[in-house]
Design brief:
The complex is a heterodimer of chains A (about 260) and B (about 300). Chain A is about 80% helix and about 0% strand. Chain A has eleven helices and no strands. The radius of gyration of chain B is 25 Å and the shape is elongated. Chains A and B meet through α1 and α5 of A and α2 of B. The site of adenosine-5'-triphosphate has 12 residues of chain B, from β2 and α1.
Chain lengths: ~260, ~300
């Protein structure tokens, strides 16, 4: 576990020193601040729009980090050959894969938490108060991106970063929609697509379990089961993906 | 017990498109004894790197057997091997000190700062410990590369061209360091192009050509078993025809040069020259250098 932690910390440190973390936070800050320009205060719904925009933006940032950086972290080590002096030390393949996975996850969490803090300050300044109920979304994002991180690492074990990036995006969007798509197919009685939809529904990660945005913005009660489902689903699914990734990774050669 | 034992090793590189294949090593045999410094020689593309990558488990053999420390596979032996890759690349965002600390933690133990400082000092990097690797020169990278290979206190050190990129002083220091860690009991296997360096520090060498081990042996044996000759400079002899019995001759004004390939004849000719009132100016025996031997083996 020490080794996993060392590799994760090193991955995180690299993104900090390369100023990736810093640039992301600045960009997030600018975008949150920009919402003031687009939303005139006079409109009655300004508060709701800003909340929507803020939490949506923070989610998109998480998505971008995973898709742009997450799909490269393994590849990068191989391409630069820095992997040679890691994998020839007593590091197991699963420790390397898991270490990179957590390194990326630190980065995602850090950006999410900092952006939430910026959003908090922005709301205090602009709306006069921060709606603490919004923090619920942070909880769900943390588990959503844990899973998406695992998806990216898994896909990058056997494809190029670009392919893995596109596939990760697809998995994210389809994973948010499978629920609706399946219902749509059932309602419209599209018999041909039924099999395919059920397949997608059961195989692809179901990201709608993390989607509580509507409830949060409108202050609907979120049941304890929803919290529990998000955490257990995310951890279980990620673990399965990491195990498969490690097995795939162990077959690799370093030419 | 041999530290490395390789039998009938075959490595075929397959390109992703499966149409083109190239042979890395072919039917290679290698034994490295405990406690020795073994030098792997060969021209570009001979298969040195391929061999070393298989020993460290970075590549898998297509067929053949690789046994380390008398019975374990490369992957199982990682705890006991230190590896310096060819043209190594390390994390640019770390300082020398941080890099060693990181690699040290991969052995599951944390190293004390003084310990790491000593390591950095031994490879001549004391001044640059707190400088990021992005600011290191090629030679400095090579030095930190050796330091990271030594960090886990390995029994076997595998170095792919450890002397490349170093200036003459650096080469000398590196050779001293290799001999020093060898005295501590570490077995060293390294590849090189620089024959004089290999000649200076190796016990045994192996010459790889086109993926095959053409020759292995103790340096003293390899070089002795080959013909050598003696050049004799003679002065004060008028009549020179009789000298031809002993070997080829060449005359330059008052001096005659004789090259003889037979040690017995050498002694005889010296006696006769003196008996005829001549003088021996010099008598230089030529042993074949590793370089000449190498060139001969390559051209065979
Ligand atoms: N990644 C690779 N893909 C395909 N062929 C390769 C690959 N790496 C090496 N080879 C081939 O294997 C053979 C041996 O290469 P290797 O790198 O082991 O040589 P080397 O002795 O280390 O040479 P050098 O002195 O130039 O470092 C070469 O003919 C080379 O073309
Ligand atoms: Mg090489």
């Amino acid at each position: 576990m020490n080794r996993v932690f060392a590799i994760a910390a090193n991955t995180f440190r690299e993104s900090v020193r390369d100023k990736i973390l810093f640039s992301l936070i600045i960009l997030g800050f600018l975008l949150i601040a920009a919402s003031k320009i687009f939303v005139p205060i006079s409109i009655g719904q300004a508060e709701k729009i800003i909340k929507d925009f803020g939490v949506g933006l923070i989610e998109i940032f998480g998505l971008f980090i995973v898709v742009l950086i997450g799909t490269r972290i393994l590849y990068h080590e191989i391409e630069r050959k820095t992997i040679y002096s890691i994998i020839t030390k007593p590091v197991k393949d699963w420790e390397f894969v898991t270490g990179k996975f957590f390194g990326l996850y630190y980065l995602v969490i850090t950006v999410q938490v900092i952006l939430f803090a910026i959003f908090f300050l922005f709301c205090r300044l602009y709306l006069g108060s921060f709606d603490w109920f919004l923090l619920n979304t942070l909880y769900f994002y943390l588990f959503e991106f844990l899973l998406l991180d695992a998806v990216a690492v898994f896909l990058s074990c056997f494809t190029t970063p670009i392919t893995a990036g596109i596939l990760t995006l697809l998995v994210f969007f389809i994973g948010h929609l499978t629920h609706y798509l399946r219902e749509l197919v059932l309602v419209l009685k599209l018999e041909n697509l039924k099999g395919l939809m059920s397949f997608l529904y059961f195989i692809l990660p179901n990201f709608s379990v993390f989607n509580v945005k509507a409830s949060v913005v409108y202050h609907h009660q979120i049941s304890i089961n929803t919290y529990l489902l998000a955490i257990s689903y995310s951890i279980l699914y990620s673990m399965i993906l990491l195990i498969i990734s490690s097995v795939l990774y162990a077959k690799r050669e370093y030419q | 017990m041999n530290v490395i034992e390789i039998k009938n090793l075959l490595k075929i590189y397959k390109s992703p498109f499966m149409r083109r294949e190239s042979i890395g090593v072919n039917n290679l045999v290698l034994e490295v004894y405990k406690g020795e410094i073994f030098g792997l020689l060969g021209p570009n593309g001979a298969g040195k790197t391929t061999t070393l990558k298989i020993i460290t488990g970075l590549l898998k053999p297509t067929s053949g057997k690789v046994t380390l420390f008398g019975g374990v596979s490369p992957k199982e032996a990682r705890e006991r091997i230190g590896f310096l890759p060819e043209n190594p690349v390390f994390y640019q965002h770390l300082t020398g000190m941080e890099l060693l600390k990181f690699y040290g933690s991969l052995y599951g133990k944390s190293h004390r700062r003084e310990e790491l400082l000593k390591r950095l000092q031994s490879v001549g990097l004391k001044e640059s410990i707190d400088k990021r690797l992005s600011g290191y020169s090629k030679g400095m990278v090579q030095r930190i590369g050796i330091a990271q290979a030594l960090i886990g206190d390995p029994d076997l050190l595998v170095l792919d061209e450890p002397l490349s990129g170093l200036d003459p002083i650096g080469r000398k220091e590196m050779k001293d360091l290799i001999q020093e860690v060898n005295k501590e009991g570490k077995t060293v296997l390294f590849s090189s192009h620089i024959l004089s360096d290999v000649e200076a520090i190796c016990n045994r060498v192996g010459i790889i050509i086109e993926g095959r081990m053409k020759k292995t042996g103790y340096l003293s044996e390899i070089l002795k078993s080959d013909i050598h000759y003696t050049d004799i400079e003679i002065e004060g002899i008028k009549e020179i025809e009789w000298l031809k019995r002993y070997g080829g001759i060449k005359r330059e004004e008052r001096i005659v040069y004789l090259r003889t390939r037979d040690e017995k004849k050498r002694d005889e000719v010296i006696k006769e020259v003196i008996g005829r009132g001549g003088r021996i100016i010099s008598c230089v025996p030529y042993r074949e250098s590793l370089e000449e031997h190498f060139m001969k083996t390559v051209n065979e």
